[in-house]
Amino acid sequence: MLKKELLILQQQSLYRQRKITDGPQQVHLTSNGKAVVSFCSNDYLGLASHPDIAKAFQQGVNDYGVGSGAAHLVSGHSRAHHELEDALAEYTGRSRALLFSTGYMANLGIVNALMGKGDCVFQDKLNHASLIDAALLSSAFSGSYLKRYPHNNINRLSQLLEKNSHSDKHSRQLVMTDAVFSMDGDQAHVTQMSELCLQHNAWLMLDDAHGFGVLGAKGAGTAEEFSLDQEQLPVYMATLGKAMGGFGAFVAGSDALIETLIQKSRAYVYTTAMPPAIAQALLMSIKISREQSWRRDKLKQLIAQFRSGAEQSGLSLMNSQTAIQPIMVGDNETAMRMSQALEQQGLLITAIRPPTVPEGTARLRVTLSAQHEEKDIERLLSALGVVTT
Ligand SMILES: *Cc1c(COP(=O)(O)O)cnc(C)c1O
Questions:
Q1: Residue 60: CB within 6 Å of ligand 1?
Q2: What are phi and psi of 329, to 5 degrees?
Q3: Structure confidence by residue, pLDDT tens digits, 277-321
């Protein structure tokens, strides 16, 4: 039975396979034993193998050993974790921050702690799977509702909020969105969304997995870029395994929000704390991200270079100003074939297919990093020119 299902996936060009990498995670990567230039990691600032961060990690192992040994509420909450939470709160301009072991779990934990029977979650149709799953789980668990609106359609969101506040004045409302859409690279209309949420007494939650470290002058993410304070944006979530080059995630907001998550988030309470050495390493990532704004400036230049070059060669770019610059293909098989042809030329770019993206919108998800050089972009552009024609 399983074999038959797998065969069908293969026939539809939807089968997924892992590649084995050797050596440090960086732009120049060894993938399946072959040297490639990678255009598909989320290591936007090039910090995943930064020597100072690696050194901080090693120091963390000396100080704390390897495992955290228990959940945060038992004996797993080390001083390194606590210091990282304080540093994240300070960086993002929030009262407090709380670490989660992964972004997926942070999203589950937020909805689970905040929403109950009869409450309503509103989500963009193109939100990351972890946000959608969080709302679905909560609806099964506690009887909250999920309403989805078409991508970035503020009018529709406004109508849904309007309707909901008429039908039930007492229910809680939570609007959740990717701040930077993970497979499209475009941004949510956060200022308008914040105003709308304040009007309707709804909480706004941003998942800034692809904005934290990248956006804002200091790299504090979408909230910094659009100057949204804790009132305007009460629930800020971001991950630490992308631009920060580490692992894990956090939620930042008011003291009451953080205490509620500690008391009620099942994905927080019932899991082992991340290794303390990771937290120690992340303290260094934050320091480097704050101080080295040249990484963000360089990334911006590379994005501009890629977009203008791609436009000149008539590639079908998407509406993105961020480090995620997908090339729309459409058909699964063509996307796979192009990805394989690029790999033969030593360029690693993943084909993203359904169900990660809607049917008929398979794409090459190009991501750029501050570690790329101008010549890498030129090489990518000329290879893309060849495989797409
Ligand atoms: C990667 C990602 C997550 C999941 O974070 P992990 O730490 O990898 O579990 C959540 N939301 C978005 C938008 C992401 O891109």
A1: no
A2: -115, -50
A3: 999 999 999 999 999 999 999 999 999 999 999 999 999 899 999
The label of the residue with tokens 């100003």 reads: 321
Please name the residue whose Cα sits nearest to atom 4 of ligand 1: 103
pLDDT digits (tens, 9 = 90+) for 127-184: 999 999 999 999 999 999 999 999 999 999 999 999 998 776 678 999 999 999 999 9
CA neighbor of 85 nearest in space, from 289, 267, 290, 253: 253
Question: CB of 241 closer than 6 A to ligand 1?
Answer: yes
Cα of 241 to ligand 1 centre, how many Å?
A: 8
Could you tell me if the CB of 178 is within 6 A of ligand 1?
yes
pLDDT in tens, 237-266: 999 999 999 999 999 999 999 999 999 999
- pTM for the model: 0.97
Domains observed in the chain? 18-49+293-387 (3.90.1150.10), 51-291 (3.40.640.10)
Ligand 1 centre to CA of 249 (Å) is 8
CA angle 247, 251, 255 (to 5 degrees): 140
* 128 touches ligand 1 (CB under 6 Å): yes
What are the Cα distances from residue 385, in Å, to 94, 208, 314, 382? Answer: 45, 32, 8, 5
